[in-house]
Design goal:
The complex is a heterodimer of chains A (95) and B (398). Helices cover 31% and strands 26% of the residues of chain A. Chain A has 3 helices and 5 strands; from the N terminus they run E-E-E-E-H-H-H-E. In chain A, a hairpin with a 2-residue loop joins strand 2 (21-26) and strand 3. Chain B has 398 residues and is of the alpha/beta class. Chain B is globular and about 55 Å long. Helix content of chain B is 32%, strand content 12%. Chain B has helices at 7-12, 50-62, 81-90, 106-113, 129-136, 140-153, 172-181, 197-204, 208-221, 283-290, 292-297, 312-315, 320-325, 341-346, 392-396, and strands spanning 20-26, 67-72, 94-99, 118-123, 159-164, 185-190, 255-256, 261-263, 274-277. In chain B, helix 4 (106-113) packs across helix 6 (140-153). Classes of the chains: A alpha+beta (95), B alpha/beta (398). Chain A binds chain B through residues 22, 24-29, 31, 33, 35-36, 38, 40, 42, 44-45, 47-48, 77, 81, and chain B through 1-3, 5, 7, 10, 15-17, 19, 64, 66-67, 92, 94, 116-117, 119.
Chain lengths: 95, 398
């Protein structure tokens, strides 16, 4: 299990959305479906969706958060959400 | 997160596309189950053609509907069934299909094993042949078990799909054993008074005591047993069962029937819940996003007479279809309300007043080996339909 406190932080690593995951934007955020695990997941706000959409072109998750316009005091909350997505295989670490 | 509105409230107001939808590919069926939700049997000559079905799949892909629950009738009796299945999964639409197992031979099992976007549900409504076949017809238990074995042999983890009735609730542990034996996952769903189910509902629906037994069993087994979110009316007993716990009709789910008609949910095949047809201008997307019926269903619900109940937030008044086909008002309690308010309501419904399904594709004259009515043509009076000993005898004999 990955945890937010593990080093390096989820924010300092590079991530991609799993190739088996489909993302569907919705008014509240987005729905995610993993075709491998058959798991349905939710991005509970549009800014988290933006963060996720920036991951592929960002060197780290922190960069993606900045690109999505998050303030420094918001990062911890979003790091938790990203950790959860990584734990359920929705995100994959990019080396 | 910045969201303050619970996610479930967003779902109640509707999504841009369904999370999943049920698609009955055909009304044709080799069986004549006494509780069939879609009154299936004979093929409808207006059934969607292969090309029309593919066009629907294209549209579902554009709308990013992640998967469809394919059923019927018996979907595998369509000659283009495997073609449509492959077409869907090649277009990013996952498939879960329900079957009685009639066409699941070794070759079909291998085919399913080779496609990682396909899940298969084998329907069985008794853990023993006698209980199953009384509802689904002679030989249907053996057919289902044979299909499970073929799937297990090639490493496919199927779902064992059970509609809970008064006669099989004493068999819950046995169902779990069968599922475990074939590396399958158990899925329990609720009997609705839909289709031919209306004719047998009084006789087959679980007693209040059995509902409690079922609830406790589901809580004990947690996420290991699937329910298709079908028992949210039981949330009024206490904690919620896993799932969204809301009526998704027209909000997060819907039904496309074999002729392309779009209904609010698979259990509501009635003109009152008909939103449109995929063959019409704008196709399925327009029906989902613009139909008057679906927009109305996404309006905040009043809760009606249930509003004053302290469990309303848990059960949200229960199942729309169950109320409708038992003749209860849609803004009142579910007929199986765990507080007993539904039974009080049912006692006031005039016999024969409940709406009848709009369509009936039942075999005329029945099928060979079809189910034999448990009681011959007698529909019990509402007031005395609950035998206090029903189910208990079987439970102690377990």
């Amino acid at each position: 299990m990955t945890t937010a406190s593990a080093t390096p932080s989820v924010l300092d690593r590079a991530w991609d959305v799993s190739p088996r995951v489909s993302i569907r934007p919705e008014s509240f955020g987005a729905l995610l479906y993993h075709f491998g695990t058959r798991r349905l997941s939710f991005l509970k706000d549009r800014r988290l969706l933006e963060v996720v959409q920036h991951l592929a072109t960002s060197a780290t998750a922190r960069e993606a958060c900045v690109a999505a316009g998050l303030a420094a005091d918001e990062l911890a909350t979003y790091a938790l959400a990203l950790t959860k997505l990584a734990d359920t295989d929705m995100l994959q670490e990019r080396s | 997160m910045t969201t303050t509105v619970p996610l479930v409230e967003h779902f109640a107001l509707g999504l841009d596309a369904p999370i999943c939808l049920t698609w009955e590919l055909t009304y044709a069926c080799n069986l004549a189950c006494s509780h069939c939700l879609s009154s299936s049997g004979r093929r409808d000559p207006r059934e969607l053609t292969t090309d029309e079905a593919k066009a629907v799949i294209d549209e579902l892909q554009r709308m990013q509907v992640f998967y469809v629950n394919i059923g019927g009738g018996e979907p595998t009796v369509r000659s283009d069934f495997w073609e449509l299945l492959d077409y869907a999964t090649a277009h990013d639409v996952g498939v879960k299909f329900s079957t009685n197992g009639i066409k699941i031979d070794v070759e079909a099992a291998r085919r399913i094993a080779a496609n990682s976007y396909v899940d298969v549900q084998i329907s069985i409504d008794g853990a023993t042949a006698d209980v199953n076949d009384a509802v689904r017809g002679a030989g249907s238990y053996d057919t289902a078990v044979r299909a499970l074995r073929h799937l297990s042999d090639v490493g496919v983890s199927a779902k064992l799909s059970v509609v809970c009735t008064r006669y099989n609730i004493p068999q819950l542990d046995q169902f779990k054993e069968i599922a475990d034996r074939y590396g399958a996952q158990l899925r329990l769903t609720r009997l609705r008074p839909s289709g031919r189910g209306a004719d047998v509902w009084d006789e087959l629906h679980p007693t209040q005591a059995q509902q409690r037994e079922l609830y406790d069993w589901l809580v004990l087994h947690g996420e290991g047993v699937l329910t298709g979110d079908s028992f949210f009316h039981l949330a009024a007993y206490g904690e919620s069962l896993p799932g969204l716990n809301l009526c998704g009709a027209g909000r997060v789910v819907c039904l496309i029937d074999p002729v392309g008609d779009v209904y609010a949910c698979p259990f509501a095949i009635h003109e009152q819940f008909l939103a449109g047809n995929v063959r019409s201008e704008g196709g399925f997307a327009r029906v989902w996003r613009k139909s008057d019926l679906f927009l109305e269903l996404r309006e905040p619900q009043s809760g009606g007479t249930c509003r004053s109940c302290n469990q309303y937030d848990a059960c949200r008044g229960g199942c729309m279809a169950a109320k409708f086909f038992t003749g209860l008002p849609l803004d009142g309690p579910d007929p199986e309300c765990v507080k007993g308010y539904g039974e009080m309501g049912l006692s006031k419904v005039v016999a024969g007043a409940a709406p009848k399904p709009s369509l009936d594709h039942s075999h005329k004259g029945g099928v060979r080996g079809g189910p034999v009515p448990v009681t011959i043509g007698r529909r019990p009076d509402r007031a005395c339909d609950e035998d206090p000993l029903a189910g208990l005898a079987a439970a102690t004999a377990r």
